[in-house]
Amino acid sequence: MTVRLRAHHLLCMLTFVGKGYSPAFVENYRQVARRLSAGETIEIVEGPDDICAPLLDGDTHCREESVAARDRQAAEAVAALTGTAVDAGTLIVPDEALLERLRAAFGSGELRAACGGCEWSELCSRVAAHGFPGILVGKAPLAGGGR
Ligand code: SF4
Question: 144 C-alpha vs ligand 1 centroid, how far in Å?
Fold first, then answer.
């Protein structure tokens, strides 16, 4: 199995600390986080993904062009960082070395262009500024990180 992620969720997964749009959304996201933490391969998809899934029955932003634009910005930024194209069908192994590299670039602002206008931006900035405590994808870098 692969974890199907749209490109901007490569960023969002870095700061996921158990907050989200609804209890069902968070529970599903926690399951995705467990799979990613176990090293399951990511498959990049266009449009709604395994994290969006619980939102798709309702009036959701997941299919909006603004979100697709966020995906494109994130794909470009991750590709520039890693030197590997990020397109639909790209497979990415979320090992700790990659997650650390992504976190460092997220914290420095290098990966944040895609975050413009996002309602969660303040939370994500705070998580990054404090060294990613309590994150649920990969190993929380600080002791006492809430897992
Ligand atoms: S600010 Fe929004 S788009 Fe950026 S990582 Fe956080 S949740 Fe994702």
Answer: 23
For 64-83, what is each residue's pLDDT tens digit?
A: 999 999 999 999 999 999 99
Whose alpha carbon is nearest atom 1 of ligand 1?
121
- 84 pLDDT higher than 60: yes
Position 145 scores a pLDDT of 43
Reported as type and span, the H/E element at residue 30 is helix 23-37
Cβ-based neighbour number of residue 144 at 10 Å: 8
For residue 134, CA distances in Å to 19, 32, 34, 140 come to 11, 16, 14, 6
Measured from the Cβ of residue 56, the count of other Cβ atoms closer than 10 Å reads 11
Residue to probe by mutation, ligand 1, list 6, 12, 49, most atoms within 8 Å of CB: 12
| Token pair listed for 128 | 């990054």
CA-based nearest residue to 128, from 141, 119, 116, 113: 141
**Ligand 1 binding pocket includes 118 (Cβ within 6 Å):** yes
